[in-house]
């Protein structure tokens, strides 16, 4: 798989990285339902075997569980096969109530980094990202500069190799760059969420900030495997069923219409609609690598095919009229 440098860092990454939100397991507010760790480990290892050289996770996924699973993977792989690990902080939780809150406190971030290092079983985190500049999104982001300065010091200490941010807008990116070097931005970006195309992607290109989109398949909706009937059978603790507007009418019909167009193009390439949805995001030169999630090894190959396809101008033009208006749901209640 093609690799390229992530922003101004020394990290060389594959076009596809594997995300771990969906394998974080049940028992937390934003879970996807039950998941066996054995399946998660098999999926992660298979992806690495196929050329994926980075895994994106976060402390809050499963309230530490996703990082623990990634740590198990690192332990079982020889150094020559170990992928880069990207994780995130700023979302913390109460161990008793499991309530998730937000903190940009330097002391909290230092503690979070140490906890992540312990769960991952590694001496350094390849890319450490501020998960959200505010929580709930759009709220106050006081302390942003202090938080970034704390990460700058942790990088100098060798605990993290590069600093990234997630869900930042352009003004917040400018504030971040005034404090330290920023290797990457992780924004939501899919054919259903295109807001970043106006200002954020051009800004990142000019400032040489790598872009790692998440929710590329809109939590599975653009995979081609989601139907109205399947949505009804999702477990009650799967956040998409009750809390995502994309999975409910009237937006659901618009989304499924787009999937039908992806399916037409996919048949020509002998791939799934998921591969076309991925290729659509990767068509942008500003995008360094896309974060994709999988829960079983047999789901990985479809994702990797998206990195091999270059959509033609005619195919892009065919997709354009079916792109829904409005903003999609990247996370429950716009929170992750």
Automatic annotation (TrEMBL):
The keyword Oxidoreductase applies. It holds the Pfam family Aldo_ket_red. GO terms for molecular function: oxidoreductase activity. Keywords: Oxidoreductase. The keyword Repeat does not apply. GO terms for cellular component: cytosol. Residues 16-319 form the NADP-dependent oxidoreductase domain. This is Aldo/keto reductase. It comes from Gluconobacter japonicus.
């Amino acid at each position: 798989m093609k690799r390229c440098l992530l922003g101004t860092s020394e990290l060389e990454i594959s076009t596809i990285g594997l995300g771990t939100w969906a394998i974080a397991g049940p028992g937390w507010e934003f879970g996807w339902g039950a998941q066996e760790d054995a399946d998660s480990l098999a999926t992660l290892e298979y992806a690495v075997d196929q050329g994926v050289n980075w895994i994106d996770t976060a402390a809050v996924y499963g309230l530490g569980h996703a990082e623990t699973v990634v740590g198990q993977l690192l332990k079982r792989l020889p150094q020559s096969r170990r992928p880069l690990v990207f994780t995130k902080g700023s979302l913390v939780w109460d161990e008793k109530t499991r309530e998730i809150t937000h903190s940009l406190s330097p002391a909290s971030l230092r503690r979070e980094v140490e906890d992540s290092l312990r769960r991952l079983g590694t001496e350094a985190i390849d890319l450490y990202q501020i998960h959200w500049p505010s929580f709930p999104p759009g709220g106050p982001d006081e302390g942003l500069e202090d938080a970034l300065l704390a990460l700058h010091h942790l990088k100098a200490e060798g605990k993290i190799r590069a600093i990234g941010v997630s869900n930042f807008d352009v003004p917040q990116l400018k504030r971040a760059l005034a404090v330290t070097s920023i290797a990457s931005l992780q924004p939501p970006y899919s054919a259903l969420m295109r807001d970043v195309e106006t200002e954020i992607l051009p800004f990142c290109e000019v400032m040489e900030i790598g872009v790692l989109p998440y929710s590329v398949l809109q939590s599975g909706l653009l995979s081609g495997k989601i139907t109205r009937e399947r949505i009804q059978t999702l477990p009650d603790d799967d956040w998409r069923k009750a809390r995502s507007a994309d999975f409910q009418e009237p937006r659901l019909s618009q989304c499924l219409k787009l999937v039908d167009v992806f399916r037409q193009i996919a048949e020509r390439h002998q791939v799934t609609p998921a591969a076309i949805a991925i290729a659509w995001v990767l068509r942008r030169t500003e995008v360094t690598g896309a974060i994709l999630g999988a829960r079983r090894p047999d789901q990985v190959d479809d994702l990797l095919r998206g990195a091999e396809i270059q959509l033609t101008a005619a195919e892009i033009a065919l997709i354009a009229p079916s792109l829904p208006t409005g903003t999609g749901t990247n996370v429950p209640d716009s929170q992750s």
